[in-house]
Amino acid sequence: MISRVIIALRVGASPERAFEVFTRDIALWWKPNTLFAFTPRSPGALSFEPGEGGRLIETRDGGKFFEIGRIEIWDPPQRLVFSWRQASFSPDQNTLVEVRFEAVEAQTRVTVTHSGWDSVSATHVARHGFPDGIFMRRHGEWWQSLLVDYKEALSSGNGQPK
């Protein structure tokens, strides 16, 4: 079985702007979630190191960081692919996030596909004891919530070019 969630929404921005706010300004719109925390410590701010091979990291107060994943594809403004892991994952447990930015008239459709959850056993702490269907639904709801905040950052003027 392939375990993945797919979430899409349209935003009132060009693909270039949508890609930029998703990557450069992720700390403005990403809200930590205790159910899907990367580490057991207090959450920090997320940031991408641009380009293939760059990292997605969570930096806490004091400067300590956790590497969530590595960028596998950096293709602005169309596509971003990066690995994703929690601190409790073993080396063979890794998920993948693909984000596509597609122009649709004066808007951009942003589609997030988070796959690879079949590498994380149903008994793993990251799944919180949820059966597959419920876990995937909850994870999808979390991505929906994140993308609503992302859309708000785009429409409110947060994340304006610096």
Euclidean distance between termini CA atoms: 44 Å
Strand content: 25-35%
Structural class: alpha+beta
Number of domains: 1
The fourth-level CATH homologous superfamily is: START domain
Please supply descriptive tags for the structure shown above.
alpha+beta, Alpha-D-Glucose-1,6-Bisphosphate, Chain A, domain 4, 7-stranded antiparallel sheet, 33% strand
Description:
The protein is of the alpha+beta class. It has a single domain (4-156), classed as START domain (Alpha-D-Glucose-1,6-Bisphosphate, Chain A, domain 4, 2-Layer Sandwich). The chain contains three helices and seven strands. It has helices spanning 15-23, 26-29, 132-156; strands at residues 4-11, 45-48, 55-59, 65-75, 79-84, 95-104, 107-115. Strands 1-7-6-5-4-3-2 form a seven-stranded antiparallel β-sheet, with helices on one face. The longest helix is centred in the C-terminal third of the chain and has 25 residues, at 132-156. The protein is globular and about 45 Å long. The protein starts with a strand and ends in a 6-residue tail after the last helix. 24% of the residues are buried. The mean pLDDT is 87.
